[in-house]
Amino acid sequence: MLVLLAIVAGVSCGGGPEGPEDESELAAARELMVATQIEARGVRAPRVLAAMRRVPRHRFVPEPLREAAYDDTPLPIGLGQTISQPYIVAVMTEALAPEPSDVVLEVGTGSGYQAAVLAQLVKRVYTIELLAPLAERARVVLAGEGITNVEVEVGDGWKGLPAHAPYDGILVTAAPDAVPQALLDQLAIGGRLIVPVGEDEQELRLITRTEHGFETRTLFEVRFVPLVREVE
Ligand code: SAH
Fold first, then answer.
1. CB proximity list for 67: less than 8 A, separation 6 or greater
2. Which of 12, 84, 101, 111 is catalytic?
3. I want to staple 58 with a disulfide (CB 3.0 to 4.6 A). Which of 13, 16, 69, 129 is the partner?
4. pTM exceeds 0.90 for this model
5. Best substitution site from 65, 83, 107 to test ligand 1's pocket, by max atoms within 8 Å of Cβ?
6. Closest Cα to residue 70, out of 137, 140, 6, 149?
7. Does domain 2-222 have CATH number 3.40.50.150?
8. Taking residues 57-64, what's their average pLDDT?
9. Residues 197/221, Cβ–Cβ less than 8 Å
10. Ligand 1 in reach of 157 Cβ (< 6 A)
11. Any idea where the domains of the chain sit in the sequence?
12. Which residues, at least 6 apart from 190, have a Cβ–Cβ distance to it below 8 Å?
């Protein structure tokens, strides 16, 4: 039935602009993505799964890659950057343990997709991107989706975003070679920082700020684009 629907949609739309048939096909692909790539690999948090089902990832990838938006892979978004594999977005979001009242910071806006997922789960998202054209495109896409609780800033995320600190959660989607001190400083007590650390070999760390200091857990190996350090 699903296959038939896909064939019919393919014929009637002929690869033209996104029509209602495409939308239902993409929605089916998104459901399948959540079931086979995310739930099947152990992501359990119901709110995170619901957010992954809701956000139309295909709107955040470059137009020619729309068909690949629900594939089990990162995709290029221009300027040498990538949107992460869907599973990685889900697993990092779950590790952040987002609460509805949280204010969170994302470092590395890229396409805006991770910010859109977080926006479903917390009160407010600040996201900072070094490359102005990516930040601008993310703003446009987020507004187009009617997402109003995300603020996109252009700047260097090594320094965090002190103006709105402290944060209940900070999620870094590019890899520094060491944990930036500014991000630790901008974490609230009880706040969680998710960060991939390293150069060629990177590990994803969950750092929690307690009343006494910081607790670090290493989650698993990952591969992200580098967090660019601006020359001082
Ligand atoms: N979270 C993104 C994917 C991020 S790719 C998404 O959902 O699509 C990593 C992003 O980090 C890139 O866009 C890159 O330009 C940005 N980046 C790299 N170094 C940075 C820095 N120092 N400060 C802010 N952003 C940075």
1. none
2. 84
3. 69
4. yes
5. 107
6. 6
7. yes
8. 96
9. no
10. yes
11. 2-222
12. 168, 208, 209, 210
